[in-house]
Amino acid sequence: MTDFDPADHLPDDLLERIRSRAAAVDAENRFPDEDLAELKEAGYLAILVPAELGGAGLSLAEAALLQQRLASAAPATALAVNMHLVWTGVAKVLADRGIDSLRFVQEGAASGEVFAFGISEAGNDLVLFGSDTDVAPTGDGGYAFTGTKIFTSLAPVWTQLGLHGLDTTSPDAPQMVYAFIPRTDAVTTRDDWDTVGMRGTQSRTTELHGAVAPADRVVRRVAPGPNPDPIVFGIFSVFEVLLASVYTGIARRALDLAVETAKKRTSKKTGLAYSDDPDIRWRIAEMALAYDALLPQIAAVAGDVDARADHGGLWFAKLSGLKHRAVVAAKQIVDEAMLVAGGSSYFTRTELSRLYRDVLAGMFHPSDPESAHSTVAAAWLGPVSTS
To answer: Is the pTM of this model over 0.90?
Structure first.
């Protein structure tokens, strides 16, 4: 990664155009269509696709840097694109381990397909280990999915939805089925995305009414419950790394805005610039200390995924811990930036107020704080005794 320059894949002028649209996207509660069009044109949706298949052939660690950069300009755009990149990242993780079942995702991303992430379900804290979505065999190797998915980012624009459900009728049931479905009349997208922040993701609710995944789009059948299967590891690892990256990008932007504000503001009491005020200097130093700690963590964990490192039973603890620390630190940094900027940052017209609302979403993504702590405790202490 020594010669990697994020600006080669996300040029400054493109980044600034995306930044210039972010406030309107948020205020109008709409999908950033212009951002997606420009990112597509720049080949961004294929950054994790091998060069021989028409992509940029980047590593997960390099994609993580790019997502930090994109999130510093438009967090909602970065988070929406994240969900597409998760599937291309999973395809890479599997291919790196000799499993080619998601090659169609790589080829699709290179040709302009947009992949959405249909895993979350209301009340399903099992996440990857279980599903309330019913899966019925169609008799020709395909499956029909019936259920409701929530937080489906890219809802207005996706062309393929990667999802899971539970097959309870086949001879080897129960089995979790991972597959991809196209957008058809069997899929209903509710127009119900009206949230505090991350409004541009348009992560609407998706109803599945017997939506069929053809046989060649069924990628994995695994037993429900905790499972070391490569599809589970692939989803969890890429999802957590790229989420940590988005919220780290928000933290960086908040830090930059705090520094900029401190240099502009002058104290009526002392006549000094805020940048010379010892309390403000301490606050910004706290922000920088927290931010600087995130960068090597993301690089190390992403690098280990790329290098196929073996952390055994600690892998899920490392991944959930990375995401948890990143979102906690990012929220702390944005909070501090608001205080540096003062009361003006409370107005909705300011970028900091938007970052303040956007960063809140980090706590709700898997792994949430409870799940992260449970995973780490189990890794170090073992399962809870039932005796």
So the answer is: yes
Identify the pLDDT of residue 2: 59
Number of H helices, E strands in the chain: 10, 8
HSE-up of residue 41 (Cα within 13 Å, Cβ side): 8
Q: By C-alpha distance, which of 218, 187, 204, 210 is closest to 134?
A: 210
- Alpha carbon distance 116, 102 (integer Å): 14
With tokens 């909070």, the residue in question is: 335
Distance between CA 340 and CA 343 in Å, rounded? 9
CA–CA gap between residue 152 and residue 302 (Å, rounded)? 24
Question: Does the pLDDT of residue 387 top 80, yes or no?
Answer: no
Domain at 116-222: CATH code: 2.40.110.10
SS3 227: coil
What pLDDT does 253 receive? 98
Encode pLDDT of 195-217 as tens digits: 999 999 999 999 999 999 999 99
Q: How large is the average pLDDT for residues 86-105? A: 98
Using DSSP, state whether 121 is helix, strand or coil.
coil
Quickly count: other Cβ atoms within 10 Å of residue 100's Cβ: 10
Distance (Å, whole) CA 74 – CA 23: 9
Q: What is the Cα–Cα distance from 10 to 108, expressed in whole angstroms?
A: 21
Domain 230-381 CATH class label: mainly alpha
> Hey, where are the domains in the chain?
6-113, 116-222, 230-381
> Which position has the token pair 């205080």?
339
Q: Helix or strand or coil: residue 170?
A: coil
Provide the residue count of the chain.
387
Task: Report residue 382's pLDDT band, with 50, 70 and 90 as the boundaries.
Answer: very high
Which residues, in sequence order, are bridge partners of residue 179? 163, 218
Choose which CATH entry (1.10.760.10, 1.10.10.10, 1.10.540.10, 3.30.110.170) describes domain 6-113: 1.10.540.10
| Run of H or E residues at 252 | helix 230-264
